[in-house]
C-alpha cells in the first residue's frame, strides 16, 4: 500500500510522517524544492515538538520520500493551504492538487481532502478531476457505484501538540457515499486511535469551520467583556474566574486579538457561505480583529502621559499564542509593527522563541530584540505583556514598580 500526501506543511508533514511511522509507504508532495530536499535529508522545515525525530526515522527507513509531483498510489491525501482573499476562500491550491493527481488515478483509489474548505468544495473537486478523467466513474451521493472513492476529513490538531492530537483526537469522516467513508476510515485507522465518525462531505466541511468559529465567538465574548470591564473599571480576569465557578459557565481568556491561520480565518468561510444569517459569527470576527487597535490606543495614551523625554517600551512576546514560535497572523506582531511605525518610543522586544526580528521590525533603528526580558523591563518606562509565554510568569511584581503596565493577558492581574 502507498499513500500520497499533497502539501507538506503544518498538517501534511506530520500526517505523512505518522502514516509512515506505522509501516506504510508514503510519498510526500510539495511544490517547493527546498521543502522536498529538506525532508529527503531527513530534516523538517517547520517547528513542532518531536516531529523531527518521527520524520527522520521514517525517511531513514525508506518509508517516507518527498517529491515535487505525485506518483501512483492507493490513497491521495490533500493537505494544501486554503487562504482567504478578497472576502473569498481561495481554492487554487486544492484544484492544483486535484489536477496533479488526476493523471495518476487508478480504479480503487481513495482521495481525501483535509484542507479547511467551504461547504461543497469536495464535490467541486470531484467535478474538476472527473472532467480530466472521463474514463473513470466518480462517486455521487445518490449512487454507490464508482471507480474511485472521495471523502472530506478535516484535521483538528492543535499546533504545538500535533503528534499527540493526530493520533488521539476523534475525526470526522465525510464520504461522498457510505463506501467512500468506509475506505477513508480504513486509511485513518492506520494511525488514529480516536473515534472515526462518519457523515457526508458537506457536514464534515461545515463541522471543521464550526469548531473554529465556536472558539472565535467564545474568545470574542471574553474580549468584549474586557472592553466592558475597562469602561466600568472592573478587573476582567477576576470577573471571569468568578463567573467560571458557575457549573455551566466556561469563559475563555481575553487577549490582544486572535491570531494564527485558522481561527481568525475559518469563520469567514461560514460568513461567505451564508452572509445573511451568520451575523454573530461575523460580529465575533470584527470584535476580535478590533482588539489589536484597542491595545495600540492604550499604548498611545501611556506614551502621551509619559513625562521626561522619549519613553522606552518593553514588548513581551510576538508569537500568535503562548509557547510557540509561530509569528504568522500574530496580533502581538501587528501591535509591535504599528508601534514601531509610530516612531515616538524606543522599543525593546522580548520573544524567547526567535533569534532575529522579523523584517518589518528589523528595519527600525529604534526597535531591538533583547534576550533577557528582565533587562528589557528594567530599562522600560512602559511594559506591555502581549503573549503569556511560560517564562514570563517568573517576572516578580516588584520588577514592575514605578512603570506603566499594559497587561493584555492577565499575567499580573
Ligand atoms: N486565544 C485567546 N484566548 C483564549 C484562547 C485563545 O485570545 O482563551 C487566542 C490565542 O492567543 C491565539 C488564537 O486565539 O492568538 C488561536 O489560538 P488557539 O490555541 O485557540 O488555536 P490554534 O489556532 O492554535 O488552533 C486551532 C484549534 N481549534 C480549536 O481549538 C477549535 C485546533 O484544534 C485546530 O486544528 C486549528 O485551529 C486549525 O488548524 O484549524
Automatic annotation (TrEMBL):
Gene3D superfamilies: Cytochrome c1, transmembrane anchor, C-terminal (1.20.5.100), NAD(P)-binding Rossmann-like Domain (3.40.50.720). Signal peptide: none annotated. InterPro entries: 6-PGluconate_DH-like_C_sf, NAD(P)-bd_dom_sf, UDP-Glc/GDP-Man, UDP-Glc/GDP-Man_DH_C, UDP-Glc/GDP-Man_DH_C_sf, UDP-Glc/GDP-Man_DH_dimer, UDP-Glc/GDP-Man_DH_N, UDP_ManNAc/GlcNAc_DH. Keywords: NAD, Oxidoreductase. One of its GO terms (molecular function) is oxidoreductase activity, acting on the CH-CH group of donors, NAD or NADP as acceptor. One of its GO terms (biological process) is polysaccharide biosynthetic process. It comes from the Bacteria. The keyword Membrane does not apply. Residues 314-413 form the UDP-glucose/GDP-mannose dehydrogenase C-terminal domain. Pfam families: UDPG_MGDP_dh, UDPG_MGDP_dh_C, UDPG_MGDP_dh_N. Belongs to the UDP-glucose/GDP-mannose dehydrogenase family. PANTHER family: UDP-N-ACETYL-D-MANNOSAMINE DEHYDROGENASE (PTHR43491). This is UDP-glucose/GDP-mannose dehydrogenase C-terminal domain-containing protein. It comes from Devosia riboflavina.
